Amino acid sequence: MIPKGPMAINIAFSNQKGGVGKTTSSVSLAYELAHVGKKVLLIDLDPQCSATSGVGGSLLPEGADIYDLFLGNVSLSQVITNTSIEGLDLIPSSKDLVSLEIEIGKRAGRELILKTGLALLDRDYDYVLIDCPPSSGLLTLNALGAAHGVVIPLQAEYYALEGISALMNTINFVQGTFNPDLKILGVFLTMYDARTNLSMQVEQEAKSFFGQLMFTSRIPRSIKVSEAPSHGLPIGAYDPVSSGAVAYRALAQELNERCYGASQQSVANG
Length: 270
Ligand code: ADP
Ligand code: MG
Hints:
This protein is an alpha/beta fold. It has helices spanning 22-35, 50-54, 66-71, 76-79, 100-104, 113-119, 138-146, 164-176, 197-210, 223-227, 235-238, 243-260, and strands at 9-13, 40-44, 81-82, 88-91, 127-131, 149-155, 183-190. Helix 1 crosses helix 12 and helix 6 (113-119) packs parallel to helix 7 (138-146).
């Protein structure tokens, strides 16, 4: 459990591998948490901008985007937009983020720019969810520098744990340097197919590696989940009774319990 002060709990969705469900999960959980009354800010730190479009958001007009925030040209409130989902705000990504490493790569304190920006957050959020790019570069380091906790999605496929030691090394490095309080909040399986031995094997491996850190909820592989982004909707809004939406709702409840304690009012029941 993360001690809750007046500030939001910041969570980075991280895994150096691409295509494992980071974006789908941050978007889906942002929706589910907002849906039960939490105030949520979703930050899209991937220059591919999929979390931005996944909640029906669009890039900000020129002159005020997250890239400028990193460069220190704009204030945090200038880059926050609301979404059509009640309780969910967004900091959209920017294609310019690809060149950020070059711009700020040599600056002192470069890993803590996002944390410094978020400290000035003047609105009341319960959660800040950060969708990381598939790399361990400066953007991910900034997410880990600003986060209280990391959530790790694992794709229930061959080589799911490949690259995990690199991620653990990155997390250890961050804990040992610029964010000693960073915790791993939990790990869960995405694109799980209960009919295959492979999914079950991966689950066993993940459990023996991560132990108690594993969430019980698993996200099933589902066409509906993969369709939802093309409608600019999180799965919970696109098809609230689909297996994917039900699974993300349960995961949101588990996450809420880990963050705020078991006395937390049930997320599923509102
Ligand atoms: P990442 O952000 O880690 O790169 P994404 O969330 O973008 O991963 O997911 C990669 C691809 O897999 C996307 O096309 C997404 O729609 C699809 N996907 C994610 N979760 C599921 C799921 N549970 N069932 C089916 N497809 C999924
Ligand atoms: Mg992504």
